[in-house]
Amino acid sequence: MEYSNTTYVTEFILLAFSEFHQYQILLFTIILFTYIVCIAGNMTIIVLVIVNQSLHVPMYYFISVFSAEEMLLVTVVFPKMLSNLMADDQKISFAGCFVQVYSYLTLAQVESVCIMIMAYDRHLAINKPLHYIIIMSRTLCIGLTIFSWIFSLFSSLIVTLFSMFLDFCGHNEINNFFCDVGPLQSLACSDRYLHIASTVTTAAAAIASVVPFMITFGLYTRIIMTVSKIRSSSGKQKAFSTCSSHLIVAMLLYISAFVIYLRPYDRQRDKYYSLIYFLINPVVNPFIYALRNRDVKNVLKNILNSNAK
User: Fold this and answer.
1) Which pTM was predicted?
2) Is residue 138 within 8 Å of residue 217, measured between CB atoms?
C-alpha cells in the first residue's frame, strides 16, 4: 500500500500513567524509591562478592553479574519514566525510542540466559561435585557471560530492526511508560512487514523465555532428584540452601516474562503488568539472595559485628 502526502513519525509520546494525573507525585515517589533500593541492593551484592575472598566462587560470580544486569535494566527504563512523570513533555525521539527497545530487550534476554547458566552451575555443584571446580573454571565462567551477551545483542538486534523498519505514520502515542515492542508494533500504519515483525518478535520471546525456562526446569528436576536421594535431613537442607534463592528468582523472572510477552498484546493492561515486573523483581531479588543465602548472611554479620566493635 502506498502512503502519499503522509507525515511519518519522528517522535513518540509515552502516555505512561497520564490518566492518573492526580497521583503523579505519589507514583514518582514510589518509583524513585524503588529505583534507589534496587541500585543500592544490587550494588551491595556486587561489593560483597568483590571484597570478600570467601565469595570468590562461580556461584557468586554469576550472582554479581546478574545484579549488574538488573541495575542496567532498570536504568534503561526508570530515569525516563521519572522524567515523564514530572514533566509536561512526554516525548521521546524515534531513535531514542528504538535505542531503549534494543537496550531493554538485550538486558532482559541476558538475564534470562544468565538464570539458565546459574542453574547449570548449581547442577554441576550438586550432581558432579568432584568435577565441579575443574569444569566450572574461571575461563568457562567468563566465556558463558560473554556468550550470553553476544547471543542477546544479536537476537535483540533482529527484533529491533524488524520493528524499526515498519511504517509509522499518524498515531505516535504509546500507552506505556517505556518503548516496548508490542505497543510500538501496534502503531504501525501498514501491513507490509507487520506480520513478519510480529512473528519474529514472538519467536524471539519464545527463544528468550521458553528455551531457557525449559533448560532451567530440566536442570532443577535433576537437582531435586539428586537431593531427594540424600538420606540425612541436614544434607538435604544444605544442598537446597545453595540453590533455593536462585530457584525463587528464576521463578519470578520466567513467570513475569510469560505474563508480559507470551500472550496477546493488551493495550490497556500491558503497562501495569510491566510496572509490576519492574517494581517487584529488581527490588526483591537482592533481598532474596541476601536473606536466603547462608554465605551472604555470614559475610553481612561479620561486617556488622566488626563495625559494632
Assistant:
1) 0.86
2) no
